[in-house]
Amino acid sequence: xxxxxxxxxxxxxxxxxxxEARAVTxxxxxxxxxxxxxxxxxxxAGKSTTLRAISGLERVRTGTITLxxxxxxxxxxxxxxxxxxxxxxxxxxxxxxxxxxENLLMGxxxxxxxxxxxxxxxxxxxxxxxxxxxAGQRAGTMSGGEQQLLAIARALxxxxxxxxxxxxxxxxxxxxxxxxxxxxxxxxxxxxxVLLVEQNIRHALSRADxxxxxxxxxxxxxxxxxxxxxxxxxxxxxxxx
Length: 241
Prior knowledge:
α3 runs parallel beside α7. The chain is 37% helix and 26% strand. The strands form 2 sheets. The protein has a 6-stranded mixed β-sheet, with helices on both faces. It has a 4-stranded antiparallel β-sheet with strand order 2-1-4-5, covered by helices on one side. β9 and β10 form a beta hairpin. The chain is built from 11 helices and 10 strands. The protein is an alpha/beta fold.
């Protein structure tokens, strides 16, 4: 009998509390090696909380999270980073008083990345030309789009196998949104798995290998990304109708 290869990431029926309220009730999803998977739904559906649970920033009350078949449900955030998961949170969470270069170096604190620090920095600056031009500029003085690129670049400094992206197009101009998604496409093309939470469902689902629709803290539907763009369940969850 042929052994079944486990998904890179498997989230099984997780529940997560925020304060006294249950923010996530029953979310399940999978990300295979090298896949781009999108999670969509309306505001307050539990999408961001799910990403925070995967990266160890929220305590999982019920269910399990596995990485390559290993249970990481209650693993600490720095151990999850060391296992190959990087999280670009909503709002970017940069260090505004630090330079672009200093912010990038903060992403390379795990042992695997530290051993290749100079090479990684050179590779990332080559990929993001605008950051190379502004390596000595303080992050807080950059535009919103430039800050989003810096946040993604900082995550890549940890050499992730799985990149979690939370609302990367939030509050960006349409032209900059396209640039950000071009970067996401390039990352995916290199074989890095991406789990994308995004309000722009057309941008997210049209390029996703698979999509999941989350509504009121539950996974309510899944399927090939492009097929979900105009699906009634997607529209109901996103628009609240």
